[in-house]
Amino acid sequence: KNGRKMATPQGTRITAAYSSGYSSLRASLSSESRTEEKTTTGAADAGSPPKKSLGDDSLGFELPTPSPQQQQDMLKSGLSTFGYDCNFVDPPPKRLECPICLLTLRMPHVTSCCGNHFCQPCIDPLCKPSPPNSQSVCVSQRPCPICQEPRFSVMLHKGLMREVNELKVFCANRNLGCGWSAELGSLRKHLDPSSAVSSSSASGPPGGCQYEVVSCSVGCGERIQRRLLSFHEGEQCPRRPVTCSYCGKYKSFHFDVVHNHHLVCESYPVSCLNECGVGVQPRSEMKKHVENECPLQLLECNFHYAGCRTKLKREDFDRHMSEKWKEHISLLSALNARLLEEKEEKIQRLVSAVVEKGEQIERLSNAVSRLTQVCEGMQLRLNPVPPFDFTITDVSHLKKNDLLFHSPSFYSHMGGYKLSIRVRVNGGQLKGWYMSVYLFMMRGEYDDDLKWPFKGSVTIQLLNVQDKTGVGLSGHREVILDCKTIAESRSPFKRVTEYEMPDWGCGVEEFISHDELFRKSGKSGQTAAVESEYIMNDCAHFRVPKVEL
To answer: Quick one: angle between helices 68-77 and 16-29, nearest 10?
Structure first.
């Protein structure tokens, strides 16, 4: 009907562009497109302006567009979003056709200007917004599409609506077998899934037209008529929830139970794999039958470990054992001989391995001894232990400038306390009279394994360089610092944690007087420092002979 002339009672004609726009929209929403008629006027000539859709500026408004789902539902039921596009028993009168959508009037409204009737969804875009299904008078905002009156009003025509609702229609699913037919007003109730009566019979099952094709609610993807849906979901759907009828425990959907669970279900009835003729039994019982009873089950000979490779049925087993006893004895004798030979070879290999391992252990022990000696030598060089010697050089310079001398660090013993000696040549509190000697603790690498505070005794000697044996002259000057006698509360021999060496230690202020330290040895022509018993070449030699814990 695109582009054809439409005569109204007043003789007004719809323009080709306007009719084409609504017709194209109706064709996109209808499941069956209407047959096009040839244009009888010059509106379709080559010189005529091109047709425009409803959304073009030439119309000035747009019809409300339904959602895709709404379009699908309405087309399926035969209820257009504009007029009624139903399967009527008898063709409706021409006067009940909307001149805009060319369908049977839906909620017919009459105009005050030319008296034409339009579907409410078709005429609503021309009027001011009003509530849905409103029956009040609505005032236009645009000219009338028929007579082009600038201002007009529209109102619901109840008589005409009643006449439309009394038209006889068939169900939209007639081609699928539904024989329902009734007035148009009851069509929606027939198609409504929530309706109490929905089939061609008043006593039919509820839930909408029973011939409508719907999707399986369980989710298998099958589409089936509603009247068959209950049977499908209860008996045929592969995804319907079921419980294994054999074990009564496994619950899943039907396909999984049948194709997966039944392959392992211990209660599932199976036949003997050897086809011995025993009846069908649960899988758990059939396993016991095959393992212990089935006469056709293949078994290995009891002497297969000895070399008998015969496999025979259970019913022939006893006969084989009684007939082949000589062969079995021969196999056992040969097996024993092989085992004895293998054991002798294994013993020889073990003896050879033990000898080889012993030689390796001896070589490794020698290597460990050598490495131990090397490590001990390196340890002594890095961390010396008593007897420990050190030398003070420039004695006269230290005395003159009142300077301190710190000896290299040493350990009380291997893995012991780390110590250091401080020497003040010019003396401590008695400056210019005595040489003072002090013992200091240092932070060592073995402190975590030692007991604190340090309570040992340290012997410090100033060597007599004129008589190193300690027999001649005055001998070596010696002092023993006994740390046990020092109170722990103020002990300088507690563990050092914050610094490498603390600021104070413990020692002897009057270790040796300057008169004795610089006393001449009696050799004329030499300086006092060179001729002293304890100083030679301006150097003093000290020794820590032992540390007792």
So the answer is: 80
